[in-house]
Specification:
CATH class: Alpha Beta
Helix content: 10-25%
Order of helices and strands: EHEEHE
Number of helices: 2
Distance between the termini: 9 Å
Strand content: 25-35%
Strand order of the largest sheet: 2-3-1-4
Radius of gyration: 15 Å
Amino acid sequence: MKKVEAIVNESAQNAVIDAMRKVGISGVTVSKVQGQGAQDPPLVGDFFSRVLVVCVVDDPKLDEILDAIAGAACTGTKGDGKVYVSDICDALDICTKKRGTMDI
């Protein structure tokens, strides 16, 4: 399993979530975040507002979800966002106590 964390512009939120749903991802977590990239010179003052969209996918689905996110969020300008992928070594459904790969 992989955890996919996409940091995108707020204006891309709905398009990204719709694209994820079209490739079969139904469980997502969305948070409003602020930050800045590694720009030079560093930003002084307020941070940029972005949206963090998180999901967990089975390994074979990874390329498809990355393509969907990039296609929905890309405007061709600097600052469109980033996507980070990390391994999930275990998971627990709190209600059922089921561990490992589950309906994600």
